[in-house]
């Protein structure tokens, strides 16, 4: 499992030009079962994605399809982790 930490490296006006395409990318990844949760940071300097992809190389290929990555609007930091404890609602993460 990975936490994807996205940090914008350009002004929000440019990010917003590709926001709908980014949302389409996210929707596709949710449909494929690759992403579990996502959202904007506060303040709006980027976003966070929780991914259940277990192979870093595969995840990097997926991220390469993100319009924010394609258009060099953001940096991506990948943090791999193995959940060892969760609330009852998230027990499925420990598979």
Short description:
The chain is α+β, with helices and mostly antiparallel strands and about 100 residues long. Helices cover about 35% and strands about 25% of the residues.
List the helices and strands and how they pair.
Blueprint: E1 2-8, H1 12-17, H2 19-31, E2 35-40, E3 46-51, H3 56-63, H4 67-70, E4 74-80
Antiparallel strand pairs: 1-3, 1-4, 2-3
Give a structural overview.
The mean pLDDT is 96. The protein starts with a strand and ends in a 15-residue tail after the last strand. Strands 2-3-1-4 form a 4-stranded antiparallel β-sheet, with helices on one face. The protein contains 4 helices and 4 strands. It is of the alpha+beta class. Helix content is 33%, strand content 27%. Strand 2 and strand 3 form a beta hairpin. It has a single domain, classed as Alpha-Beta Plaits, CATH 3.30.70. It is globular.
Descriptors:
single chain, 95 residues, alpha+beta, Alpha-Beta Plaits, 4-stranded antiparallel β-sheet, 4 helices
């Amino acid at each position: 499992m990975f936490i994807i930490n996205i940090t914008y490296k350009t002004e929000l006006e440019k990010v917003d030009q590709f926001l709908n395409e980014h949302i389409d990318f996210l929707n596709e990844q949710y449909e494929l079962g690759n992403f579990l949760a996502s959202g904007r940071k506060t303040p709006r300097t980027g976003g966070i994605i929780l991914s259940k992809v277990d192979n870093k190389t595969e995840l990097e290929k997926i991220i390469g399809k993100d319009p924010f990555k394609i258009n060099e609007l953001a940096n991506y930091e990948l943090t791999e982790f193995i959940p060892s404890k969760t609330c009852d609602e998230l027990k499925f993460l420990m598979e």
